[in-house]
Structure formats: C-alpha cells, structure tokens
Write a structure and sequence with these properties.
With 379 residues, the chain is mostly beta strands. It is built from 3 helices and 23 strands. It has helices spanning 190-194, 237-244, 326-335; strands spanning 27-32, 40-45, 62-65, 80-84, 88-95, 102-105, 108-116, 119-123, 126-130, 134-138, 143-148, 152-160, 201-207, 210-216, 233-236, 256-259, 263-268, 285-288, 292-299, 312-316, 343-349, 354-355, 364-365. The strands form 4 sheets. A 7-stranded antiparallel sheet has the order 16-17-21-19-20-3-23, with no helix packed on it. A 7-stranded antiparallel sheet has the order 15-10-7-12-5-4-22. Strands 9-8-11-6-13-14 form a 6-stranded mixed sheet, with no helix packed on it. The structure holds fe (ii) ion (FE2). Residues 87-231 form the Homogentisate 1,2-dioxygenase N-terminal domain.
C-alpha cells in the first residue's frame, strides 16, 4: 500500500458554491487519489472544470444506450462484452427465456446486477428468487441458470481470475461497509426440488474466454442440502438504502459495495438530506486520478446529466475532470436542489478500461463528448 505524502494546506480563497452572504461562489472540483481513499483536495474554480472549448485525441468520455442492444444470446457467458480490462469484463444480457443449459464461469467471480425483470435463479446451492435492483454474487465455478417471469436485463461484471469481497471498513471513508446480514442466500425448497429431473442437461463452462460443454444424463443441480461458508448470495440496493438511511451521512467512497483487486463496484442510492438548499451533492466536479470510471444508470432522474436515461452507461477515463452538465448544475444543484432519486452502479478500475469496439454503432451516443461545449458560463 502506498505511503502517501500528505501535506495538509489551505491556500487562497476557499469559498464554496453553497456560500451565501456576498462571498463569491465558485465551481468546486474534488481531486483524489486511490479512488478518493488517498490524499485529496478541493479546488475552487472560477470557471466550470468541464468548460473545454475543443477536445482532440483518443481520450474522451463516452456514453452508451445499452437498452438498444439486441436480446440474447441464450447463454449469458456469451452475452455481448462491451467493456474490459486485463482483470475484468462487463457484459450486458437481455433475455426473457428460461435457460435450458447451465452456465459456469471458471475464469472468475461474476456479479449479476438485475436492471429489469424478475424470476428465479437456480444454482448449485438451491433456488433464489430475484427482482430488479438485485446484485447476485456468483462465486467462480458455480453452475447456474435463470427462469425469468418477465423480460430481464442484466449487467454481468466479472472479476477475471479474482474474487469479489466486501470493502474493508478500515479503508472506506466513514468506516461504512455492508452488513453481511443484508444478504439473502438460495434455499433448497420445493421449487428447487421440482426442477431436478433425469433429462439431458448441458453445463457451458467458460475458461480462458472459451466455452466448453459438459452434458449430463440428469440435472446436475441436484443438491439435497449443503453446509459451509461459500455460496451464491444476493443483496438489493433497497437493502443498502435502508442501512444508509438509518442515520449514516457518508462521503462518496462509502458507496463502495464490492471490491476486487483492481476495481470496485459502488452503488449510488437516494441520499437523505440532499434536498436542503445550499448543500452541494455528489457527484460534483471531480478528478479521480487513479481510476477509469464506468457508470450504469439504473433508475431515477439523473440530475448530473440532462440527457442520460435509465439503461444508459457512461465511461470516463482518467485524465480529465468530469461532473454535472452546466444546466443541471445551475438548475438542480444550485437554484432548486431536490432530493435525488437516482440509482446507479459505478465501477472504478485502476486497470485501464477499454471499450469493446464491436458494440453496435447505434448503441453509442457519439456526440456525448460535445455535450459540455456550452459549459462556458462563469458563476
Ligand atoms: Fe466520477
């Protein structure tokens, strides 16, 4: 772990945009290292930190409308990959069909986030009903399948050659982390026993990115019971929200939900007290210098980005600041702040993230980089 050089200081006029009484308002930019868990500074700018006039070169913010991707395929291991690094892969999978084969990822743990729909997940450990807003953690090697009872859309986040863990309370700002009691585990119940049959079943196994198939003359999800401390588990953002609203006021880094060695998964959930006029909310302008950032917008109104809808995603590589569009900043953060109802999943990756360029043209909002061009106004 880096032994950071920390030099606490205050220089010049440090006046926030929330200031009143004649003090000059400014645009605040939060600069941080190590996913905001290292040294940080608040810089007070006269102009919007995203007020660039021209943007050239390969480094650019990008936005995608994942809802526009075609449904399928039948096997989630072969769902469209649209983002990856050396140590993680992100896929988007739309399905309304019962899986007739099992999936097993031998490359790493998989985190399923249910964007839309509901149904049943059957796995080595039993039956687990799911609904929108659930994270389902599938340990490496687990055999599983889903039976949707409504059209489903999933974000699949794979920690390649790695495992997901919970954030360490000692390193999370504010000391907040996830209560393990919030997780729900699969059950060996009637629904699980009812799907055990003597038909031929395939397990599709992904290893080194390639899929192989095992065929059994019976359903291998045939457990009669299990014991131990390894299993599939789920937690919903609503459960996290309940814990958070039980009186905790926390900084951005405390929204971290799952961690792997090179990246973290955070959940932005409705926050209490942010409708108070003059309270500056996250995400405000920021430069998270050690990470590439990916955000998937699940539901609610995304106050920081005027044109972003649920089902869309943005990618902000390290190297330049980002934050609210000027119109949103003025109207929703300064003039008439409201309680935010946005829910989003954020991946911060210390490994360089790449967009899989096989993503269809129609699913990318190519003009996204230009949406800040009117950010010239000065407070
Ligand atoms: Fe960010």
């Amino acid at each position: 772990m880096t032994n950071w050089i920390r030099l606490p200081n205050s220089e010049g006029d440090c006046v926030g945009a929330s200031a009143t009484g004649g003090e000059r308002p400014t645009y605040q930019r939060h600069v941080g290292r190590a996913g905001f868990q290292g040294p940080s500074a608040q810089i007070f700018h006269r102009h919007p930190p995203v007020g660039w006039a021209v943007f050239e070169g390969p480094l650019r913010p990008r936005a995608f409308d994942l809802a526009k991707l075609a449904p399928g395929p039948a096997c989630p291991l072969q769902a469209r990959r649209f983002l990856f690094s050396n140590t993680m892969e992100v896929r988007y999978w739309k399905t309304d069909a019962k899986m007739h084969a099992l999936a097993r990822n031998a490359d790493g743990d998989t985190l399923l986030f249910v964007h839309h729909g509901e149904g049943s997940l059957f796995c080595d450990y039993g039956h687990l009903p799911y609904r929108d807003g659930d994270y389902i953690l599938l340990p490496r090697g687990t055999a599983w399948r889903v039976e949707p009872s409504a059209p489903c859309e999933f974000l699949l986040i794979e920690a390649t050659a790695d495992a997901f863990g919970l954030p360490d309370p000692k390193t999370v700002a504010g000391g907040a982390t996830i209560d393990p009691m919030l997780f729900t585990l699969p059950r060996i119940d009637d629904a699980f026993r009812a799907q055990q049959d003597e038909a031929f079943w395939e397990i599709h196994i992904k290893r080194k990115g390639q899929v192989s198939t095992l065929t059994y003359p019976y359903n291998p999800l045939d457990a009669t019971g299990w014991e131990g401390d390894l299993c599939v588990a789920k937690v919903n953002w609503r459960d996290l929200s309940q814990q958070r609203n039980a009186g905790q006021k926390v900084p951005p880094a405390a929204y971290c939900t799952f961690v792997a060695k090179t990246f973290s998964v955070s959940t932005f959930i409705p926050k209490v007290g942010e409708g108070v006029s003059g309270i500056l909310r996250v995400p405000f302008y920021h430069s998270n210098e050690d990470v590439d950032e990916f955000v998937f917008y699940h539901r609610g109104e995304f106050f920081s980005r005027g044109e972003i809808r649920a089902g869309m995603a943005t990618f902000h590589p390290s190297g330049f600041p980002h934050g609210p569009h000027p119109k949103s900043y003025q109207e929703k953060m300064i003039k008439a702040p409201v309680e935010t109802d946005e829910i989003a999943v954020m991946i911060d990756s210390r490994d360089v993230l790449s967009v899989d360029e096989s993503i269809p043209d129609g699913a990318e909002w190519k003009a996204y980089v230009k949406t800040w061009e009117k950010a010239q106004e000065t407070l």
